[in-house]
Each structure stands twice: as C-alpha cells, then as structure tokens.
Amino acid sequence: MHPNSGQCALITPGDFCVKQHASVHALPAELLTIVFHLVLDGTFCIAPQTIGRTGPWALAQVCRVWRELVHNEAGLWMAFYFAYAPHELWRPHYRGLQTALQSVLRLSRHAPLDIIFPSRQDISELLLYDLLADASRWRSVKFVGITDDLRPLRKVARDVSLSPDKIPFERLETVEFKMESILDLEVMEAFRTARNLKHLRLYGYSGQSMSNTVSLVDFPWPQLTHLSINTDFSIITYRLLESCVNLETFHETSHKLSWFSGHAMLPILVHPHIRSLHATDCQLLTLLACPRLEHFSFRASTKCAQEIAEFVRRSASPALCPPTSLEIWLTPHLTPSPSSFVPLLSPFAAWPITHLKIDIRARETVFFKMCSFLAGMPEVLPFLECLGARMDFRRTWESGFFEAKEKASVVKAVAALHDRASARRLRRFSVEVLVCDAHEGWLGQEPMTVVCRRFFSDLEKELPLGLEFDGVTTYDASSLGDSDDFTTVYG
User: Fold this and answer.
1) What local confidence, expressed as pLDDT, does residue 185 receive?
2) What is the mean pLDDT of the segment spanning 329-358?
3) pTM score, two decimals?
4) Which of 37, 62, 48, 239 is nearest to 139 (CA)?
5) Cα 88 from Cα 422, distance rounded (Å)
6) What is the pLDDT of residue 225?
7) Where are the domains of the chain?
8) Any alpha helices (H) in 191-256, and if so which ranges?
9) Which residues contact 206 (CB under 8 A, 6 or more apart)?
10) Three-state DSSP state, 81
11) Rounded to whole angstroms, how far apart are CA atoms 194 and 188?
C-alpha cells in the first residue's frame, strides 16, 4: 500500500494486511517490540508483531518493501518508536533486535531518523549505541513520560559526552523531554553538539534538579528558535532566555514559578526576534521586552494587571509594528466583571489589536459578559476585527448552555458590541469548542458534537456579522489528567 493512500500497512511475518491508520498504542502492547514509521506525505507504518527468531526476518522484509515504494524520494524520514513491552519479553531478544536494527539502519541509508522513547521502557544499551552510531542522521528525539530507570540512557549519554570525538548531531532539529519527574540533565549532555537545534521542549523539572541546572546555560544552540518550558524554578527559565538570543517562539507553561530573592535586580532581557509569546507567570513578564511581538497570550488574573502593563510599555516601539493578535487564557477563578477586565485590557489600547480570543474554560457566561464589557467600553480595543472564543467542555457537560435562551444571550451580546459606533471594525466572530468523548450521548442525550454544530449553525443565521465556526474538537477521555496545563488544551 502506497503511503499516500492515507492508510497504515501492518506487516507481520508471513502475513500482509492493511488497516486504517491508528495509534500504535491501539496495538497489543505485549506483542510489540519495535515499531517503525516510514512516512512520505502520509503514514506508512510497519509493525513487526513477533519477537525472537522471526523478528529480524520481518524487519528485513520491511526494508525491502520500503525501498521499493519510496526509495530516493524527497522528504523521506524514519522514526524508531520503542513501544512498551514487559521486560521479560525484551531481554531474551536483544541480540535479535540489534541485528534487525542494524539491518534497517544499513538499508535505510541516509534517511533522517526521528526517535521516540515512551514511558516505562527498559531500553538496551546495545540498541542505543547502534542508534548513536548513526547520530549524524538524527532529526528529532523525544523522551515522553519516562518515570522509571534511566541508567542505560545515562550511561550512553555519559560515554558520548566524555568521548574525545563527540558524535555530531548535525541534523538534529528537535529535542523534547516530557518527564513526569526530574529532567535528567546527564542525558542532555549528549546534545551539546546539536548546533542546528531549532526546537527545544522541556517539561518536568523539580526542585531536586536545581543544583544541576547551571550547565543548561552553557549549551551552545545558536539556531534555537522555539522554546517551550515547564519548570518550577524561575532561574532556569531566565537563564535559558538569556542564552537563546534568536528565539522566535517562547511558551512558558508553568503554573507557578518559584522566584528567588533578588530576582527583581536581574537585567531586563530584550528579545527582538520573539513573535509569539505565552506566559503563565506574570512575574516573568517584568523581566522581558519583546518589541516585535505579533501574538501574545497570557493567563488572566486580577493580580497580574501591573506586570502586564509594564511589559506592554517596555515592548512598545514606535519604529516597529506592535502585536495584532491577543489571546487571553482565563483562570478558573477570574471574576467576569468590568473591574477584572479593565486593568487587563487597558494597556493594549495603544496597540492595534485586531484579533482577540478568549479561552473560557467551561465558563460560558464569561464570554457574554466580555462582549457586553467591550460594547460598553469600545475604547479599550478600538481596532478589534475578530472576536473569538474557545469553550472548553472537556470536564463538564453544560447542556443548558445550548438552550434557546442562551443562544439569545449570545446574539444580544454580540449585536450590542457590533452596534457601537466605535466598534464597527468588528467583522467576524469565531468559536472553537473542545469536548470530551465521554460526553458523547451522555445520559441518553444527543452527542455533544451534534448539539454544538446545530447550535452554532442556527446562531450564524441570527448574528449581525459573519460567524466563523472553527469546529468541535473531541478529546479522548482517557487522556485527561488532573492538570489544567496550557499544553493539554492547546496541544
């Protein structure tokens, strides 16, 4: 099956079958040993579902089929996904898997490699050393949700970092550590030679790792343009911002940074290249200036109005174009009243904000009151052209929101905003709804996706301006955690 068909071929020894593309997690975990994704403008998955003596044979077949299909095609890449399997199934077959892996690497020639290490995986040093032998082909590496023993990774990383002839990660563009505990900086030492690194995502710092974070500032990544970090120590975030001078996108998604005494004495960091900024800790804004900002999103709180005002004042530059897109991520406890919104939005009156999106977090009344507030005080955002809302119903099922009286409230609020003389620029109203699949047909009701689409279809006919319904996004109920993390909503 050609990869452009949009289907996923699962190739097993002696049996070839075609199934619709699905997550590898849907496959029996106890059967998977290694999963290869071979992608060319689509997804072509090869999953040997047996282990032992047949494993190398299956992988050899995979290589031949792959080379016949897409050999020498531009954009080809290869990903190694070390799927979870019980340790007792892995151990007897390391040698066989190593032989198979070497065969695949040899046959794949110079294709870029994307490598994913998922959670709870006992990875053989033999396999790691084989992959590191082709480190010049690595394009991305991700450590996702690892909570257990990282000794094999540490040993390999230490050997690599101490080697007199360090392995050059010349193609490496993306490194992601999404840990559920401490980020292992010893593993990161191996990536010092990744001079072309562009994307760095760090999640999972804790106070125990604080003493080892000084080495972060020494990482020479001059090409880094995208940084996402979730840490509970502010000095780490500050030092990374200080080192990465060419950043274009910065997302700080911590709930609360632990600020050290004397942080107010730190020099302000001016980042002339950052165009997209998200900050959940307003104290961080007091140390930043971004004169070329195009998109700014922040966690709204009545306590952060002064910090936001200072950041806007420092970032304003008459010679540069100020931001036109503003996104407000409302905290669950923000009081939806003019007294809350005025200090938050007033600093942006001098900026030509044309797009405003409000993340409502399952509090639909906030949006209605926001519309009424903007209608009553149009001078706050006089250039507004598009008003959007992201309504998050993943944890609650507020069926009453979609009743006729609520639709009338939306129409009334938006119409009032549109009718204001100074708000005539407003032309579009966009809505995105996030729902959880557990609410589909909940308690005998219609699926929420159906209810949402019908509601906004009817609403579009009554609004005085064009409605852009961005659609309903359904999330798997099993993927929801207790965290209110920004990455869960926007990821």
Assistant:
1) 63
2) 71
3) 0.70
4) 37
5) 70
6) 93
7) 331-491
8) 234-243
9) 181, 182, 232
10) strand
11) 11
